[in-house]
Design brief:
By secondary structure, the chain is of the alpha+beta class. It has 2 domains: 6-230, Chloramphenicol Acetyltransferase, CATH 3.30.559.10; 252-463, Chloramphenicol acetyltransferase-like domain (Chloramphenicol Acetyltransferase, 2-Layer Sandwich). The protein has helices spanning 33-37, 57-78, 116-119, 172-191, 218-230, 261-277, 288-304, 346-350, 354-367, 374-381, 422-425, 448-463, and strands at 6-14, 27-30, 44-51, 85-87, 96-99, 105-112, 125-126, 143-145, 147-154, 158-165, 252-259, 311-319, 337-345, 391-398, 416-419, 428-432, 440-447. Helix 2 packs across helix 4, helix 6 (261-277) packs across helix 9 and helix 7 packs across helix 9 (354-367). GO terms for molecular function: acyltransferase activity, transferring groups other than amino-acyl groups. InterPro entries: CAT-like_dom_sf, Plant_metabolite_acyltrans. Pfam families: Transferase. Residues 257-284 form a coiled coil.
Length: 465
């Protein structure tokens, strides 16, 4: 192959091994108002890089690939709805997931000549380099797939697993649990030679949609709201295509930055000391998430520069599983997140005490999350769609609590995990530090000049914390 090329060896469809005697009975999984809110959002795309310096073509095709395929088939037994498609029957008030025993998940098998060490490094590199390794999730007017996978060989270096998931079916916790379930079953096949391994309780999920109460019919209301927006992008108001995203600019670069436990401790002390001097009576919620976002967002606003009077919108997703009344199981599979939005001015974050201001605002927002009002909170967000002129949006993808670096398929933990889709959403990705010790990895995609400015603010700022 030529330098930095991708050769697709084939696209296969992996189905659950049901032994169903040819049954084609179709089942349905309803979409709740939590799911419908994300119906038109672009897919979430992640890459897991695994380093194996002795990985030959023979080893990949005779050991790695067969075990991944077999364990995926076993995993789908526990995730049957993921084999189907989102469809919208003519007389139905809203779309739903339809699946049957004959369905399966698309898996692309490929080989790359790209530099494995570069694409899996923290160093700043072209954002477009990860795109060929990422599978495309198919959505159309009539249907939408829920997950697409790609397994890519880097000869004598390792392999990557690319995962694209539909946001109307997966929130971050659900997609992470799916990947971890696949990894657990694959590792059990290899390490313990189990023919029919089972999932532990923490990976055993519930698809019971009756636990999500919707007495006011918010699900159908949200569908109608999407109707109103769909005319801007499609003449078919029942189209299941996700909204188009801005393609990754060739001048954009990707980089990963780390806040160590010691960095976070210093940031916490700095914020606490500032509010002690102010004699503030409010007890701040200074979690790792709050401190990370406060510091990173301030660096991003400074790196953008420009009009200090511009509006800055900060958004983050809060898991509502334990905030609903009554609370639902933490193993609920599906969307159960609410996006909290904060409005600030760029000058607030450009101030000397910008980190302290951001930390206080984020702290107040998290403390103010209600165990009720999920529908109202999501409803308010529809008015923000299309509101982009002169505004800097700052959002997050992933979480430092997901434990993505625990995803071991049997050949060791990942060398690197990337959230590829931030190159189209503008969010920053969060993950626990793969080095352990309570640190956080932050991934960004920015214009090259803006990335250089961000790196300078990020690194220099930590010297004076």
């Amino acid at each position: 192959m030529a330098e930095n090329t991708l050769q697709v060896d084939g696209v296969i469809r992996v189905s659950p091994n049901l032994h169903s005697n040819g049954s084609t009975t179709e089942s349905t999984l309803p979409l709740t108002f939590f799911d419908i809110f994300w119906l038109k959002f672009p897919p979430v795309e992640r890459l897991f890089f695994y380093e194996l310096t002795d990985l030959t073509h023979h080893l990949f095709h005779s050991v790695i690939l067969p075990n991944l395929k077999r364990s995926l088939s076993l995993t789908l037994l526990h995730y049957l709805p993921l084999t189907g498609k989102i469809k919208w029957p003519p007389q139905a008030p809203k779309p739903a997931v339809f699946y049957s025993p004959k369905d399966g998940v698309s898996v692309t098998v490929a080989e790359s000549s790209a530099n494995f060490d570069r694409v899996s490094a923290d160093d700043i590199h072209e954002a477009l380099e990860l795109r060929p390794l990422t599978p495309e999730l198919v959505t159309s007017d009539d249907f939408a797939d829920m997950v697409a996978l790609q397994i890519t060989l880097f000869p004598n270096k390792g392999f990557s697993i690319g995962v694209s998931t539909h946001h109307a079916v997966f929130d971050g916790k659900s997609s992470t649990t799916f990947i971890k379930s696949w990894a657990h079953l694959c590792k059990s096949l290899i390490d313990e030679d189990q023919q029919s391994p089972s999932l532990p309780p923490e990976l055993t999920l519930s698809f019971d949609r009756t636990v999500i109460k919707d007495p006011t019919g918010a699900d159908v209301s949200f569908v109608e709201k999407w109707f109103g927006l769909d005319g801007k992008y499609s003449s078919n108001s029942r189209s299941l295509k996700v909204f188009p995203t801005i393609g990754t600019n060739e001048g954009f670069v990707r980089g990963t930055f780390e806040l160590t436990r010691e960095d976070l401790k210093k940031l916490r002390n700095r914020v606490e000391e500032y509010y002690q001097v102010k004699e503030s009576k409010n007890k701040l919620h200074l979690s790792t998430f709050v401190l990370t976002c406060a510091y990173v967002f301030v660096c991003m606003v400074k790196a953008r520069g420009g009009d200090r009077d511009r509006e800055v919108i900060i958004g983050f997703n809060a898991d509502y599983r334990t905030r609903l009344e009554p609370p639902i199981t933490s193993n609920y599979f599906g969307n159960c997140v609410v996006t909290k939005v904060l409005f600030l001015k760029a000058e607030d974050l450009m101030e000397v005490k910008g980190v302290e201001i951001a930390a206080e605002k984020l702290s107040e927002a998290i403390k103010g999350l209600e165990n009720k009002g999920a529908v109202e909170a999501l409803e308010k967000l529809f008015c923000l769609f299309g509101k982009v002129e002169g505004i800097q949006f700052l959002g997050t993808a992933g979480s430092n609590r997901f434990g993505v670096y625990e995803t071991d398929f049997g050949w060791g933990r990942p060398k690197k995990v990337e959230t590829v889709s931030i190159d189209r959403t503008g969010s920053v990705s969060l993950a626990e530090s793969r080095r352990g010790h309570g640190g956080v990895e932050v991934g960004l995609v920015l214009d090259k000049n803006e990335m250089d400015a961000f790196a300078s603010f990020f690194n220099q700022g930590l010297k004076f914390v």
